[in-house]
Amino acid sequence: MSSFVHDDHIDVVCSALAVNCCQFGCFIQNSPRIPCASENHDWMTKLRENLPSKRLRNLVIPGTHDSASVTISKWSLFAAVGLCQNITVGEQLRRGARYIDIRIGSGVADSILMEDVKVVHGILTGGKFVDILEEVDLFLCDNPGEFVVMEVVLENKRQLTPEQRIKVLKLINSTFGDRMVTKDDDDSWFNLKYVTLGELAEKNKNILVLLHERICGFCHEEITFGMSGTHCVLLSVVSWFVFTFISISNILFTTKHQFVTLCVTKDADRVTREFNCHKNENYMRNKWHNTMDPQQILSSNEEFLETYCKHRGKLLNSQFVMTPAFGGVENVPGLLFGMKSLRPVSLARKV
């Protein structure tokens, strides 16, 4: 107990140093500060062996928010609050997490390269997306009886080029292949109301990839991909406008250099069929409980579950997001002198 108290003291002091040093994450300890199992890599496999008829929707599935943010440099400005996790995605999975939240964006403006698709959190840039996929793939290869829900979100202000987006979709599909839940699976046996751990193992499925709609609305060559569903026809014209958009109902005319792209609504499931990636809102309802108050986050979670517990066709994703904030001016002295902490894990421990 004495070491636990001492640890708390060091924690707030380091957080105060981080405030004084422009929130550089190098002033925050790297080791996990919340007691948790160091090895829990096969808990679903063990559960299935004893309860094969257990439905997926009846499980309480551990997950992490901004799962890959550990790849952000600790020397980045504001990294102290941007580093939501302090262990790798692979380690999170080995410790038992089965929902991971991967935020991506372009590390270089207007790039068409896959290597420039990076983990991002707001203005902060982390490691390569391809490296995160390799971590997840390695875990699933070593633990084929586990089932992971991976949500991929494109950050608002870190847009990918059309070339990068198509490469992201192709890379996800080629990395996980037949282990992904497909459109055909969804049309036949994969129903969140009823699917069991035994069925997932029998079908050799161990990952469900969900995409935020921001990642999918784009034109590439002669095809437009989009969760709302679109189709493009390439028309030859002579135009020297840099960019012109004329929106008429559901038709979008785009002139760029010497061609016009005509996009019209067509097939809502195209991305799902071709890349086995699904629209997140079709499978999951997300709730972020943004607060610094532990009691408020618990009561908000209870209200969320009571409100949507009857929606049996979707997973309920209740994210205990404790967002660091200065609050009023009166809190500044406490933060500067180590009496309070902005460190996310410190706030989480209070829960």
Q: Could you explain the architecture of this structure?
A:
The chain is of the alpha/beta class and 351 residues long. The chain has 13 helices and 15 strands. The strands form four sheets. Strands 1, 2, 3, 4, 5, 6 and 13 form a seven-stranded mixed beta sheet that branches. A four-stranded antiparallel beta sheet has the order 9-12-11-10, with no helix packed on it. Strand 10 (244-248) and strand 11 (251-256) form a beta hairpin. Helix 5 (129-142) runs parallel beside helix 6 (162-176). The protein is globular. The relative contact order is 0.13. The model is unreliable at 1-6 and 227-268 (pLDDT under 50).
**What average pLDDT do the residues reach?**
78
SS-based structural class?
A: alpha/beta
Ends distance: 18 Å
Overall number of strands: 15
Q: What's the shape?
A: globular
Counting DSSP H or I runs of 4 or more residues, the number of helices is 13
Which segments are poorly predicted (pLDDT under 50) over 5 or more consecutive residues? Answer: 1-6, 227-268
Order of helices and strands: HHEHHEEEHEHHHEEEEEEEHEHEHEHH
Strand content range: 15-25%
**Main pleated sheet:** 7 strands, mixed
> How many whole angstroms does the radius of gyration measure?
22 Å
- Give the % helix: 25-40%
Topology diagram in text:
Blueprint: H1 2-20, H2 43-50, E1 63-64, H3 79-82, H4 89-94, E2 99-106, E3 117-121, E4 124-128, H5 129-142, E5 148-154, H6 162-176, H7 183-187, H8 197-202, E6 207-211, E7 218-220, E8 223-225, E9 230-236, E10 244-248, E11 251-256, E12 259-265, H9 270-275, E13 278-279, H10 280-283, E14 284-288, H11 294-308, E15 315-319, H12 332-336, H13 344-350
Parallel strand pairs: 1-2, 2-5, 5-6, 6-13, 14-15
Antiparallel strand pairs: 2-3, 3-4, 7-8, 9-12, 10-11, 11-12
Helix pairs in contact: 5-6
